[in-house]
Amino acid sequence: MENNKKIFDAQGNEVKLSSADFEFCQVDKKIHDTKFETKATTFAKDAFKRFCKNKSSVVGAFIIGFLVLLSVFVPVFNKHDIEKPNIAQRFLEPKLFETGTGFWDGTKEVKNIPYNPNTDAPAGYAKNAVVEVIATREVLANNYSEYAHGGTYVYELDDLGTRGYEYLQHVSKIQFTKDNDISLNIEFADQVHNDEYEFAQYQIELLDSMSQRVAILKDWSTDYADVSINISEQITKNVKGFIRINAKPVDGSTKKSVVLIENLEYKTTSEDEELVALLEEISITDANATKQLGTKDVGYWNSTGVTTVINVVLTYMDFIYDPYEAQLGYKKDFVIGKSIIQKYIDNGWMEYDFEEGVESFKVLDEENCPILAITKQTENQDLGTINLVCDVTYYKYLGYKKMPKFFMGTNASGYDLLKQCFVGLRTSLLLSIVTFAVCFTIGLVWGSISGYFGGNVDLAMERFCDILGGVPWIVVMTLAIVLMGNNLVTFAMALCLTGWMGTAARTRTQFYRFKGREYVLSSRTLGASDGRLIFKHILPNALGTLVTSSVLMIPSTIFSEASLAYLQLGLQGVQSFGTILSDHQQYLGSYPFLILFPALIISLIMISFNLFGNGLRDALNPSLKGSD
Amino acid sequence: MWKYVLKRIGLALITAFIILSISFLLIKLLPPSLPLGNDDTRYAYYVIQENLGFMQLFSFENVQLGNYIDRGKTSSGTVFYCYEVPAFTQYIRWLTNIVTRWDWGVSTYINPNNPAMLIIASKLPTTISVNVFSVIFSVPLGIILGVIAALKKNKPTDHIISTSIMIFISIPSFVMITVLMSILCYTLGWLPTQWPGLSASTAERVKGYILPVICLSFGSICGYARFTRAELCEVMASDYLLLARTKGLSKRQAITRHALRNAMVPIVPSILSEIIGLLGGSMILEKLYGIPGIGKLYVQSLNAKDYNVLFVDMALFTMIGLIAGVFLDISYGFIDPRIRMGAKK
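ok -> structure tokens follow
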């Protein structure tokens, strides 16, 4: 073959070309395609990539993971007992920081508690546990009280009886002599305390021990100016006796009569200590204290009328209180048996000789020894027991090395709420995962059959679901619980009884979507059985969507279980979120943290599951594959 | 159309009948709960049960001892034994009473000897009033929030609304109730801690409505907002809205005349059915806040095994649920002319 083709350039000149003008671009024998430099992506990888793009879902997944880890490890590593009630540590506030930091430090603000002067602390609260007094205010009350002081002594005429007057007298007799210079000062109130009353007329007389009148110190009068009488000057001879204040209504009075004593004081120049003490006892300097005395007390005042007190001063306090210190800290006069003391001695924490007694006590190991001081040793001869009255550091006595901290506080039985919550979470998760697995399997099979075969089979199965789904679930649960007992297995079974219908409905929809597709038809043409079509061809395509939409069954099971507990049908003998929340409901007003922490955790897990589930659904949705 | 409606209602009635029958038989299979108290009150209880046909009393003279469930002595001194009638016989008697005389029986425990129907009727107004307020409150708010979120899609406003919807819809209702009670009733003391009774002052009773209405509304507000947002977003992306804009309508006109109207098509039926569904009330809310409604009654009668009251209540709940479903399906047809269910092709 002759190559006579000529080549011309644009101007029409001939161009000569030889083989030297060419070079090989490929000299190998075979020609290869270059490989893709990027890797091919799979469905799972693509889904994962798209899941990661959804930030909130990732956060949700992390929170779920974190809570699940906690629910596994907290019950293992937290050694607090949540089986046996421990009253000593009940209702402790949540404590994360040291006492005094003001936030989450285990203290609580207590308001309006009367101050008890006897213990120098608010009534009913331990002094050493009051961290800080925020405010005090004084309130006047018209009733005597253990915690009050001061006030006015009211001597109200009640029944004038045969004498025609009432009297008020002190019970203890005093030795009046000419020398001991006893004087009586009485301060009356200027005005009656109430419009219903008016002042009576009164008389003060001195009686001897046989109740015979010795002298009239002040005759009938309505003069309520302060009275000051030197009794020793009024008597002619030494006498042992008492004074009596008689009172009767003013003539023609229609109101109730009353004598109000602000202050009644005996004074003496004598240096006889006994007498001074006695006079001090008898004086009414604190009406509240006088009113509180019993008939046997030295300073008791006896009256035929009615005695009350008004305007006593009560001090109310607002303060910050540390229940940890009160319940687990220093304890005074705590009784410990010999065997425990012996254990401490054997541990080398302290030295004590039961023969020698209290004197031989010595602390050897300050860090571990719960006992600070021993005040008394008591022996019961009959039983042969020895008890010691000690001052102790209570948390050491309970076996704690240092003051325990309960991050979430403790409940009415003294259980650590933190551990309780995570044990509860574990139970709830276990229950819901088991339920999810069972329901999912049943629902999948049911929905597959119903969706694949359609027609009358579908109709019958749908009606069955309608009816079963129509039975109120609370009735199903009640029946199951009453018939089979209140335990975890029954719960899971009862929840499964109605729980699978959601998955079944979703599976059915998916089957309707896929069963008409060409690939199913082609497989059927090749002779595939129904089982093969269902499980090999249709189900795998639908599985992703089904799993993700059914994942939300887990939070809804947690919710159902908790709801049941609220309706008093909850699990018994097992800690779960429902039982924790419903048990603590009654403390909502007094200890809100008992509700708030479990509520916070259950809300957190629900929100996380929803976020996670939504993200997963978007990620696995086949129609969104490859987008963005 | 009417044929379809009637068919659906008939089907709902049959379903309700089967559900109630199954529940009745199942519950009657449980061991009966015996009344507490002295012999006289117990005897009175058994007489009621005998009149209803559920139990059989025998005195000592005319019966051999067998598997009696309880025994005692009447005030006249006769020893009586109480036997339970077989569950299926009880069921037949119960059904006969309802079908022939519309007699649902009398209460045995909660309000002894009063017709169960009347007890339910007396509790219903409270539940309905709480729920009506909740609907009035939640429907507009939910739709408005949903519309705002959809119009500002993928902007900060939308993110805030969607996130809060997500959070509030996830928080369990009882947690919401408890936390709100803790804050509003106990800590701040603004609202009564319990549902005020009839004796309370008007102001107090008005205050008593606030917490239940808030609690019931939260869920529905979130539900409506989410639904509205989803529907409106879909409509906004549709071709006909694009056409509306291209033929010269302003954005406002396009949204109000086309988008909103079409988005409302699935929303309105769901609101209607939810209104019916709300009549059932919330058992937990009623229990926690002490509202004397039918939800609380249900729990009470279940715990006390006051079967007649329980079954009227259960029938009510079931019918509410089924009718709401029927209503939902039918209302689609009325609202959206394109849907003609049951029509021949």
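The first strand of chain A starts at residue 7 and ends at 8.
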